[in-house]
Amino acid sequence: MYTSGSTGEPKGVVQTHRNVIYYVDNYIKRLSISEKDRLTLFSSYCHDAAVMDIYGDLFSGATLFPLNLIKEDNLKTIPDWIRKNNITIWHSVPTLFRYFANIINKTISLTTMRLIVLGGEAVLKYDIDNFKEKFPDVVLCNLYGQTEASFNSAQFIVNDSEIDEITLGDTIENTEILVLDHSGNRVKEFETGEIVIASLGISPGYWKNNAVTEKAFVNIEGLGRVYITGDLGELLPDNRIRFVGRRDFQVKIRGLRVELGEIETCLLKHDDVIEAAVLSKNNNNFEDYLCAYIICEKYLSEKEIKGDNSYLLSIIWRSLY
């Protein structure tokens, strides 16, 4: 499964039968998926969220309902689609859930739903408030994970629960999440460090890329082989962890992992672009978007910039806008 790379060359994350089974088994157990469940499938099959849903259904006997979100009409009719198909488990990135929750009103009854599962990007306090207002009889599950380690933990939220922090939640079986400082030592309460995953199911590494693999997957005495996520976390009381951002320039846009430097590299391939900088911003609907700033030899229209760049950049434009 390919992720973004700061050089413009995506990294291939190796998946094996063993680690897929490990994560799917934990997925089924944590969500109590059974043959009675009916799950959404919104993600592309080349995204690790789709692997969890496809094999989670196959291994449990549940039923999977794909929906093509590229068609705009499908977005508008999601509530009717859920009711018609008696969906019990919703799984998406928070951005899609945000849109879904905003079009729900008191006249729409979705009595079959029991779980809303969110992952792929940060869940906001706004999302929790929206969930509590619109879905009084549903449980919200906030998953934390990466392509290199599909999911590591889950925080479950019920409607009447008092949430003081949105955290990574409780870890799955045979997985430990650590927060380490620059020296590799565990941080103390209320200190921030890098999130490291120690698990039986982490990826073997990056396809034909030993140099990057050796940086991201290391051996720590007493823990064995671990994955260095690049995520930053704050250690809270009772060993809870709050996600606070990245140590690099990677961002999440609608669940897609994007290196800002990757887009800058693509922009600089244009003959008339001298300098480029890309930032992640937030609009009034709590949605992230990308904004590029360029210095050019001559005036370039938006069409010229998008049309003359690489195939990779054209995919980014279609995915994000």
CATH fold-type name of the largest domain: Rossmann fold
The structure class reads: alpha+beta
CATH-derived architecture of the largest domain: 3-Layer(aba) Sandwich
Mean pLDDT: 85
What helical percentage do the residues reach? 25-40%
Physical arrangement of strands within the biggest beta sheet? 5-6-7-8-9
Q: What is the number of helical segments per DSSP (H or I, 4+ residues)?
A: 10
Low-confidence region ranges: 308-321
End-to-end span in angstroms? 22 Å
Strand percentage: 25-35%
In N-to-C order, the SSE pattern is EEHEHEHHEHEHEEEEEHEEEEEHEEHH
CATH class of the largest domain: Alpha Beta
The radius of gyration is 20 Å
Name the CATH superfamily assignment of the largest domain.
ANL, N-terminal domain
Q: What characteristic shape results from the CA principal axes?
A: globular
Largest pleated sheet: 5 strands, mixed
How many structural domains does the protein architecture include? 2
> How many strand elements?
18
Describe the structure.
With 321 residues, the chain is α+β, with helices and mostly antiparallel strands. It has 2 domains: 245 residues, ANL, N-terminal domain (Rossmann fold), CATH 3.40.50; 71 residues, ANL, C-terminal domain (GMP Synthetase, Chain A, domain 3). It is 29% helix and 32% strand. The chain has 10 helices and 18 strands. Strands 5-6-7-8-9 form a 5-stranded mixed β-sheet. Strands 10, 11, 12, 13 and 14 form a 5-stranded antiparallel β-sheet that branches. Strands 1-2 form a two-stranded antiparallel sheet. Strand 3, helix 2 and strand 4 form a beta-alpha-beta unit. Helix 5 packs parallel to helix 6. The longest helix is centred in the first third of the chain and has 15 residues. The C terminus is likely disordered.
